[in-house]
Amino acid sequence: MLASVREFFGTEDLAAALETGPDAATARNAAYEALRRSMVAAVFLHHFSEVAANRKHPALHGLGKLDLLKELAARTLAPDQSARPDDGKILGEVADAIKHGELTAHHIRHVARNGRVIEWTHDPASLFAEGSANGVPQIIVATGAGSRSLRAVLQNVCTTWSNWLGLAPL
Questions:
Q1: What is the pLDDT of residue 27?
Q2: Is the pLDDT of residue 16 over 90?
Q3: 109-118 pLDDT, tens per residue?
Q4: Which phi and psi angles does 17 have, rounded to 5°?
Q5: Cβ neighbour number for residue 20 with a 10 Å cutoff
Q6: What does residue 121 show for φ and ψ, rounded to 5 degrees?
Q7: CB-based contact 95:153 (threshold 8 Å)
Q8: Distance CA 33, CA 157 (A)
Q9: 3-state secondary structure the chain
Q10: CA-based radius of gyration for the chain
Q11: What is the per-residue pLDDT across 112-169, written as a single tens digit (0 to 9) for each?
Q12: What is the C-alpha to C-alpha distance for residues 5 and 132, in angstroms, rounded to an integer?
């Protein structure tokens, strides 16, 4: 799970760096690779709760899946220590959309009016001060409340799991 998140971070960074380079095809391919890696990371990280529960990690104190997700929401913080209780839910909705091949799903609660679940864009994540700024491209999650950096959502949820279970940090 940690490896897939790290791979996404690396491919997003590479794609952003290539964006201003002379080879448009290479930049486009790198952006598509970042999208693919973001999908893998989202699915793996979302389903990690099931893995942890099934393996009965002692730090979970026997919590079932629904209680685990509630506890995850209560524990999820941004790097500035502000609460991000919806990040696990957003991650789950992104993973569900990817799993069902509905990247333009309108039934997902957090998706904005344009219907895109994730996208490669130059627009900054607007809901919180997170993600890339100054027009640097990134993958965002379109939510009804505003755009979110997928990197930030993954980082917040992954850091919560790492802290909770005593795993290696990102």
A1: 93
A2: yes
A3: 555 545 567 8
A4: -65, -40
A5: 9
A6: -150, 160
A7: no
A8: 22
A9: CHHHHHHHHHHHHHHHHHCCCCCHHHHHHHHHHHHHHHHHHHHHHHHHHHHHHHCCCHHHCCCCHHHHHHHHHHHCECCCCCECCCHHHHHHHHHHHHHCCCCCCCCCCCCCCCCCCEEEECCCCCCCCCCCCCCCCEEEEECCCCEEEHHHHHHHHHHHHHHHHCCCCC
A10: 16
A11: 545 567 888 888 777 888 888 777 899 988 777 788 899 999 999 999 999 999 998 8
A12: 17
| Two structure tokens written together for 100 | 């069902």
- Position 147 scores a pLDDT of 84
**Alpha carbon distance 41, 80 (integer Å):** 23
The torsion angle over the Cα atoms of residues 156, 158, 160 and 161, rounded to 10 degrees, is 170
Instruction: Give the range among 6-20, 48-62, 95-109, 121-135 with minimum mean pLDDT.
Output: 95-109
Rounded Cα gap, residues 65 and 47, in angstroms: 10
Q: Which two tokens stand for residue 53?
A: 């529960």
- For tokens 């996208």, name the residue: 119
